Amino acid sequence: MNLAHLLQRMARQFPNRAAIFHGTQTVATYAQWAQRCANLALQFEAAGLKQGDRVALFMHNHPRYLEVMFGAWWAGLAVVPINAKLHVREAQWIVDNAQASWAFVTADVTTDTTEKLQGLQRVIVVDSAEADAFWAVPAYEDLAPTQAITARQGDDLAWLFYTSGTTGRPKGVMITHRNLSTMGFAYFTDVDAVNEQDAIAYAAPMSHGAGLYAIPHLMAGARHVVPASGGFDAAELFELGQALGPLSLFAAPTIVKRLVDHAEHAALSQSDCARAFKTIVYGGAPMYAADIQRALRIMGPRFVQIYGQGESPMVGTALSRFHLSDTTHPEHAQRLASVGVPQTPVQIRITDELGHDLALGDVGEVLIKSDSVMAGYWRNPEATQAAIRDGWLFTGDMGCLDAHGFLTLKDRSKDLIISGGSNVYPREVEEALLQAPGVSEVAVVGAPDPEWGEIIVAFVVARTGATLTTEALDAFCLNEIARFKRPKRYELVSHLPKNNYGKVLKTELRKRLHQS
Fold this sequence. Notes:
The protein is an alpha/beta fold. Helices cover 33% and strands 27% of the residues.
């Protein structure tokens, strides 16, 4: 089982079908994509790289990302995706820990520093003349390549993904060919149907889930679109969708909000949005009920939610287009606040701190079992043993299941606030405050307190043009949630600190409280 066989299969069946686009320009058919990957594999092998060796991708979104990724797999190598927004020193730590042999980079990853990656056999800038020569392929690139694909087993390493490292050094998550194949098949059963007319747009970083969605779209022979900007621009994506046909994409909730803002400000109808977007899959951070309700109202039934982790990439639960749009269901409001039901290849349990199963509705740690779950943490057996027990991934997320199988997340276990002996889940307070007039964003954390143990602190961002007061926010909370859940302190801020994927950095908010 080697993921490169997926590309070979499509190149043989549909060699002349347009496959990779840079903006609206076709840059590779399926045959050309496969030929370039096969040629890269030959050069990897000629340079002495062996099965299982690691190749780092320290790149902003670029059409050649897909070619390096599948070229590495064609040669039996493993890919190490590195967030292009990291500092070179942070990327260097990952390269060293992964013991990578080669790295492919975009020139802009070092624009803010004179430092370069060190200790590698070769570093290739993918948008350079050197790379153009390296990518040269024979004249018969309109035919599927005959170069053999290196055999790999399902449990062999394919994708060595490093966690965000907000609480220390990142850990290398070992994702196998079987894990990613499972993710691809689950997309069809639980997320969206795909055909050759579809187009997946890479607006979120390809080093994370957005890049992995190349796999199901390759399975279906669809088109792969890298925006000319190399990232997210709402107006650009709407224009691309109008030009190429409705796009599908993976988006963090912050990106969804910006798409919805653009549609609203441009006075676009749901029909206009349907011409630009087929499916917007969102996940990676909490999507609050008020935000998805607004998205559905403005853009229509374009959305599917997924819940997963780097340790089970893109595979956990899904809240389908149907369930999001089923407004007549008596539990629709609760379902909007959930992350959906387990995806087809997934089992989910809710347990207490001792690993005992809890009753429906009780809050505990979310456990996942699936062929999508990682093989373990790279060179870190202790962390692996703590995370995977008897085949179950202990996610660190707190949640509960209802009688229909819907999973509602409360918070990360580390974010639970215990105030006066009572458990408070920040998301409950955040959901309430987001309904308050004039509120744009909210993040709730606990702060140490000698009397209560912890007190609840809400960081609140106002909508443009709105004026907020702590008195008005407090009065609103008193009408919406139990008194013990009410924040004892409100911090009115201009913005919330976030990582590159839109997740609020609550560790940074806690630091602010300690420093104040």
